[in-house]
What we know:
Order of helices and strands: EHHEEEEHE
Helix content: 25-40%
Shape: globular
Distance between the termini: 13 Å
Number of strands: 6
Strand order of the largest sheet: 2-5-1-6
CATH topology: Alpha-Beta Plaits
Number of domains: 1
Structural class: alpha+beta
Largest sheet: 4 strands, antiparallel
CATH superfamily: Dimeric alpha+beta barrel
CATH class: Alpha Beta
Amino acid sequence: MSKFMLIMHTSPAVMEKLSEAELNEIMSGHGAFQEKIKETGEFVSTHALGDPSNSAVVSVADGTTTVKDGPVTVSELGIGGYYIVECESKDRAYEVAALIPDAKIDGLAVEVRPILFSAGANL
């Protein structure tokens, strides 16, 4: 079994256009998705992230630390959250990613990336 990060790319512009009913459907869809992958034993963890506008980039050059407000790249899409799953194959990870409600919304995306190293509690 291999671990994969399913990265949910979100767009504030797309999210703002969704109705309250559509937003509620996404949230309940995430609950159903989590239950499904817990039942299959593929769920490891999940985390929702704050808006990219609230992030900062830290770099160190010649011993001086610089902090810049905002994400690393300015893009229409930002990382809204992620799931860590453990699947038998890349193809199964793609199938699992397709179950995430965000994957079904035009303008949003779910990226599947293999995890090469894990450390920490329950990872």
